From TrEMBL:
Keyword entries, A-Z: Membrane, Transmembrane, Transmembrane helix
Species this chain originates from: Georgenia halophila
Annotated TM spans: 12-34, 148-172, 179-201, 207-230, 237-256, 293-313
The UniProt record lists the keyword Lipoprotein: no
Protein name, as recorded: Membrane protein
Superkingdom of origin: Bacteria
Protein's UniProt keywords contain DNA damage: no
Amino acid sequence: MSARSSITTLPPVLGLVLAVAAVVAVIVSAFTWANVRSEPHELPIAVAAPAPLAEQVSTQLVESAGREAFEISTVADRAAAVDLVQDREVYGAVVVGQEGGEILTASAASPAVAQMLTQLAAGVPPQAGGPFRVTDVVPLPSDDPRGIGLSAGLLPLVIAGILTAALLATLVGTVGLRVVGVALAAATGGMATVGVLQGWLGSLEGSYWANSAVAALAIGAVGATLLGLYRLLGRPGLGLGAATMVLLGNPLSAAGSAPEMLPEGWGTLGQLLPPGAAGTALRSVAFFDGAGATVPLIVLTSWLVVGLVLAMLPVHRGENGARAARDGQSAASQPVPA
């Protein structure tokens, strides 16, 4: 930096310091707010018990956790409750019968919810038949019993999509090659990510190829969206897209908890963004034979298609403006004929 452009007075320094503090505050808020305010909001669970007892159990659940904490479905028996858990219709169930009380959980659906239901089972007083025994209907892999791999692996998928778009936008000059680049980067990135999570760390189960396809769709959705924004807005579009995916989409993905555990409304928004949809789809495909994957796969496909359509638009103001500026500089540098 030249002496002429250097800052030599205190007010600009204070401005820079305040700007950095503001950016840090935004980043910290984005990554901590949703988790700190985590509590159930209409969390789907089932109650399996004889009719009069089922109503009593439901009332006790509402009184213990709040009126809006659970969305309770009443089923006839334990088998029906297990079916709902395995179909991802509910996160767990309370079963009360002749053999006593039992809490069904699915740590593969949400370790945080499974832990909450386990604590609920331990808190049932002896006069009510407690503590209830706990059965994990769809457990996480023994190599990763807390589900850290899947939760932590979501951000690298987002970053892969961002890097793909940034490199293709700045280094590749034709739209067709950019589209091909997104497809290749998504495919290879998806296989590499699942290779680490499933082949090495043991954090995923099910079909390697199906899991890789979901991961590839996630990378492609992010990458195509950013390319589309670049096509419309130029480099600011890349920055806007990256900030949205990292600072909004990733914290609201609920990859480590559940959308219903986020503040009301924000969980729904998170599932409409690529990171949240990717986490739900990958969890469904890896542990539930695809149950519950339809909506998130539609969300990811929609982002991918819209991004590609935008990326192939014939008008790109950012590139045209940059090209015009370069052409102007070239014309100015040419010698003028005498």
